[in-house]
Write a structure and sequence with these properties.
Layout: H1 6-23, H2 40-59, H3 67-83, H4 90-109, H5 123-145, H6 158-164, H7 167-180, E1 194-203, E2 214-222, E3 225-229, E4 238-241, E5 247-250, H8 253-256, E6 261-265, E7 270-274, H9 278-292, E8 301-302, E9 307-308, E10 311-312, E11 327-328, H10 331-338, H11 344-357, H12 359-371
Helix pairs in contact: 1-2, 2-5, 3-4, 4-5, 4-7, 5-7, 9-10
Length: 372
């Protein structure tokens, strides 16, 4: 669903997610977690506003759902009805368990993982997303079961659920579930699925005469090509098909006296780019390494430097041909292209916490080693 429904997800939730990130409104309604100065009624109003907006966006989007997803939901519904004919709500539960619990709710909870935002949320925004996701899950269950006696694990959510458990909300969700499980509904997938996008600093590729300067450009990696434009939404200035992605590698810091540089090796030229930080660098390397695996002409060697003033800065070779190299393509980058997304920032944070928790023992071992 994430692969086929990425464009649908962005069209449906993007504006709502942007407003939540940019507004930074507190939505905490658990009295035990309120901070000084927060007002429970105001937070409840904020949360209700966002939930209503997201539910409206979802229930109004049935016609935009990819037709292939509608066909899958239709088969799920038919199989569930045949298996449990005595349950009159199974036509809803079979669909809501996928479209809400496994599609929309995870995307709301972690927008970065679903390419809805380039950055991780602040603590306030993260908590708001968690509560909104919980509420959307609850509403999907209410819509499916049409029951006001749903079991609630968290009492502080009950007042919000009561406000949303009216007939109009239930009918809207049921109508949506019926529409997206119609095999003739939805629309054919015409858009490319976006794997990664964001601003990078790129060096001119030398396609035109003149100095090779650096400019900020918006890059977008889809399931077919890599493009860049002046800003998001503009027409692409350059389109690089997957067949031309021979390899992606890091670039020596001293090549351009710039950190976080990496290169995309093409048949006739090299595209040099700079990420904003080490995390951004690793995520672009991972995404592009996956794309390079689809090429039938992958590079085996590369130059870790740049061709400047008549020679390569890494090895001194005078041969400018981009198909040459002084180093083999690194195994680490190849492995990045084969791995699944493990949430790099989350893993780095875990390692940081391990060091922080063991700081006392590390200092003690250091003192013992010094005195030995």
């Amino acid at each position: 669903m994430k692969l086929m429904g990425q464009s649908y997800l962005q069209r449906t939730l993007q504006c709502c997610i942007d407003e939540i990130f940019d507004g930074r409104r507190p939505c905490e309604i658990d009295p035990s977690r309120l901070t000084d100065g927060e007002n429970l009624d105001i937070n409840m109003a904020n949360l209700l506003f966002f939930v209503e907006k997201i539910l409206s966006a979802i229930t109004a989007s049935a016609r935009s759902c990819p037709r292939v997803m509608c066909r899958v939901f239709s088969m799920l519904k038919e199989a569930a009805v045949r298996r449990f004919p005595e349950k009159d709500t199974v036509q809803y539960t079979a669909v809501s368990g996928f479209v809400f619990l496994r599609f929309f709710a995870p995307a709301i909870l972690n927008p970065k993982l679903f390419n809805l935002r380039p950055e991780s949320p602040s603590p306030v925004v993260a908590r708001a997303l968690t509560l909104i996701s919980k509420t959307v899950q609850n509403m999907s269950n209410v819509g499916a079961k049409m029951s006001s006696n749903q079991t609630r694990k968290e009492d502080f959510m009950a007042p919000l659920n009561r406000q949303l458990m009216d007939h109009s909300h239930i009918k809207e969700i049921q109508d949506y579930l019926t529409a997206v499980s119609d095999p003739r509904g939805g629309e054919e997938c015409m858009d490319d699925n976006v794997y990664r996008e964001g601003m990078l600093i790129k060096r001119s590729q030398g396609r035109r005469k003149g100095p090779k300067n650096f400019r900020r450009r918006h890059f977008c990696l889809t399931d077919r090509n890599l493009t860049y434009s002046k800003s998001k939404g503009d027409s692409p200035l350059c389109v690089i098909p997957f067949l031309d992605l021979r390899a992606v590698e890091r670039v020596d810091d001293n090549a351009f006296s710039m950190k976080f540089m990496f290169q995309l090796i093409q048949p006739e030229r090299i595209l040099y780019m700079q990420a904003k930080n080490s995390v951004d660098l690793m995520e672009w390397l991972s995404a592009l390494a996956k794309a390079c695996t689809k090429s039938n002409n992958q590079a085996e060697v590369y130059h870790s430097g740049a061709y400047l003033n008549g020679s390569w800065s890494c090895c001194g070779s005078l041969e400018e041909e981009v198909t040459t190299g002084c180093k083999p393509i690194s195994l680490a980058v190849k492995l990045l292209g084969q791995r699944e997304d493990i949430g790099l920032e989350r893993e780095l944070h875990k390692i940081y916490r391990m060091f922080l928790d063991g700081q006392t023992n590390l200092l003690r071992l250091k003192d013992e080693a010094t005195s030995a």
